[in-house]
Predict the 3D structure of the following.
Amino acid sequence: MVKMSIEYELLRSRRRTLAIEVLSDGSVLVRSPKGLDPKVIEEFVKGKESWIEKQKARMAAYRDDAVESPVITAQEIRRLKEEAKVYFPEKTAYFAGKMKVSYGRISIKCQKSLWGSCSAKGNLNFNCLLMLLGDELREYVIVHELAHRIHMDHSASFWRCVENVIPDYRARRLRLKKEGRLILKSLAGEENKTGRFYAYILRCADNTLYTGYTNDPEKRVEAHNSGRGAKYTRLRRPVRLVYLEEYDTKQKAMRREAMIKQMTKREKEKLIASYVPNVSGGNRR
């Protein structure tokens, strides 16, 4: 443990750059390339002292509010978006070069359930709330989404691709789930642990497919066919339900919806062909 005005733990590895992370317990972790002069590291940390104190205060607020989620104001969301608009293009370009992949547009949003996503066209979306978490977790999300430029699924090949860049991705993934829970909860509210939510696919009149999520498939299909469902289906009526998956939370259904949307039409048709409804109407997940 190195001591100075900011107390931190120093970890050296084969990385090329310095990085600072404030963990959920308020401790500070500095990652450094092997052999880097300790004076350079100290100067780097001193230069980030103001940022570190703000992050420690923010983490303390989250810990003190373990039962009730912290309130993230509209003003703070705007600030986080501005930070993210600078951070993610630079970091994404770096990792895309390392992974030798291309990508399209980068969008910054504030979402209740997704940290990031990659469309079939290669457009990337990142949640501005990631700016409340450490650099290592943000890097994991970036690499995760860029890996979808090679594998549009979560197969073993996909995870090997992630592991090639981030060997400890499993630990980071677990930390993202744990440390990000309260942050997402502040926007999403309490999970409905006893409810039913669904990811679904509709076949439109022109044989195209539409994917969405709902807590009432029957009413949702009725809404689509009455022109109140979505702009896309409004022009392609009538529609019919051809695939349904059931989940116990809205967040899980939304994640599955996003995953299905990333599939090609051929992959969706295979999914539809394998569909076997259960008693409640959908594959239980």
Notes: Confidence is low (pLDDT under 50) at residues 65-69, 189-194. The chain has three domains: 9-64, 74-188, 197-284.
